Amino acid sequence: MALGPDIYRRLLRPLLFGLPPETAQKAAELALKRPLIWRLLAAASPADDPRLRTELCGRPLSNAVGLAAGCDKNCEMLPALKTLGFGYLT
To answer: Could you give the 3-state DSSP secondary structure of residue 73?
Structure first.
């Protein structure tokens, strides 16, 4: 197992899941607003798999998993959210 996923599973996940919801959301927003992190991750691990491609109302999507409106009301985290592999963001 790679070091990165193991660190997440053993250290970061329990830490983040132990936070109050509002604090966890603020921590996620802070991390998602750091574009360098997400550019490096996108270069290392592309999320686009041709088997998952689909269409919605004639528009091509990389996959059918979308993120609902309200998560990023001010559109400050769109590049990071796109890098996470969502097929669409509303």
So the answer is: coil
